[in-house]
């Protein structure tokens, strides 16, 4: 197991425009479950490959338990990596595939067999141990890839690069839940790369949100939802994402274009740059009191409804309580405790 730290880490590909990874300092604690979350091209796979040793960063250092491993190749970092597409030996049985890393390390047959059977049980592969891998589906093959990382008790970290890409949608929830349970039983540092917020938030204890090569927030799933530190986090986390309203500030009030005033739970000093008021749709609702709005449409999402609104010329999404008709003269109610102010896309702390 390893505590992984980055010391002024950055990376630029030769011939590329700018940094693929902007300078960062960060620590991933030993035995933690982390997710790297962001859209395609944000740098998350580059960062994972730097951790594994497949890429050497152009600046900064990678530390495992305080030791500088920046120049060490993958095989000397003692990490296991699970890729988007399962890598298995089709001519081998499931048992032989799982035992392969142990055999390479010279583990005696009896303890290796016990370890393989234990991991197979955790993954739901116990009944398939003597089947050839070529006769299995993509989900079982990906479980084998997961198992080859878990079967080693000396691994420093297990790295997952979009591991559920090829898994049928109805099986993804099962595998995500199984991975979470596996981490509870096998306390090893796990780092999971995904663009899917559901995968990240259900797997990880802490989520690293990335945008355009920059780490914009590291936090628990609850912190990312309740207090996004960056506009991108508010937009990317949640479905629909956070509402952002252009505004001006006057002490403890936000003033929208057109003059509507919204009381804030905190006062703010004079701020420059682009000012916005942020609130999630879950904390805004239609009713008979509040700010006047125009209803554009209602989206029925099954267990809840979302009202798409026009508020002072700006788009806005709000919850519509189950069974409640759209008011003839709709008004928007905002939970004041859930209002946040952003200056140039970054959360600003007000004065109590």
UniProtKB/TrEMBL annotation:
CDD domains: ABC_Carb_Solutes_like (cd03259). Pfam families: ABC_tran (PF00005), OB_MalK (PF17912). Keywords: ATP-binding, Cell membrane, Membrane, Nucleotide-binding, Transport. GO terms for cellular component: ATP-binding cassette (ABC) transporter complex, substrate-binding subunit-containing. Gene3D superfamilies: 2.40.50.100, P-loop containing nucleotide triphosphate hydrolases. GO terms for molecular function: ABC-type ferric iron transporter activity; ATP binding; ATP hydrolysis activity. Residues 4-237 form the ABC transporter domain. Belongs to the ABC transporter superfamily. This is ABC transporter ATP-binding protein.
